[in-house]
Amino acid sequence: MSHSDLYIWMIIAGLSLGSFAIRFSFLGLIGDRQLPKPLERALGYTSVAILPGIAMPMVLSSSSGELEPIRLIAALLTLLVGAWTRSLLYSLLAGILSYSLLISIV
Amino acid sequence: MFGRNKLFWKGARRGFISSLPFYIVMVPFGALFGLLATEAGLNVLQVMGFSFAVLAGAAQITAVTLMEENAPTIIILATSLAVNLRMGMYSAALVPLIGKAKLWQRVLASYWIFDQSYAVTALEHNKNPNLTLDERLGVFFGVAIPVSSLWYVGTYLGAVVGNQIPAELGLEFAVPVTFLALVAPLLRSIPHLLAAFTSVVFTLLFADFPFSSGLLVAGLMALGVGYLSEVWLEKYRSKEGV
Hints:
Chain A has helices spanning about 5-30, 35-45, 45-60, 70-85, 90-105.
């Protein structure tokens, strides 16, 4: 690949402006005007609607291309401990520790 | 900037502490981008420019990967921005939380919207709905500024030190686990569980959608499922009198 410096900076500028426009869209332009109640309630589910969709395909795929049961078990423990304790930290620790432990004994 | 606003700093401490678990992945993840971008022919200044101006890991990696493949400009921009469209949902979801902030605060917040900054703020609000606006702003920036700083540092290390740090180390599994840990504490109600389930099932089914739009379509469906099941559950409970 041999892009010119100018070209690379143009890509950066384009992505930067585009990303800011996306991020500013609602928060910036709607601001303190009231969203319709149903929409506001639906948006309360944004975390659970997006993040599992990013994470689970990563859990299910691996570099070897095969499903690794250890990853699935560790992911389930992350979710269970997190739901039970309501703590982000314990949830993460459960995932990382169970994964490391299972990898080392299997 | 927020001077002696006690509530803001109280929130910021909360956000800072809640986001500590992410610190372990931000530097290696940033280094991975720095490394890929350097390999794609960007100099250190350009790599840093990328991280400061765009501040979105997945979109940045998508962009430099496509640049290395000599993809057409329009494809590079469209694909990378599509990866970032979920930030539009975070922007909307932040309206009820920090929409009443001053315009300059919302401009700053917009720059710093990413998965962790939105999700931790939403989680803290879910756990404690009585937080004031200043506290919520504190939580948001208390997550956003330190976490993004580590992203810049990681990017720099990846660009400069490059191959000598094992950028992949543990990341392959650590990244999805941090995302799961962000939502796990929310999975205590039927609507939240159903929404999460919808998100996973349909993202997998829509894996072949162009411009990675499957995640977004599945996400919008999940919002609908969450809302509708909440409404149904409310009706059912009021009928049963429980």
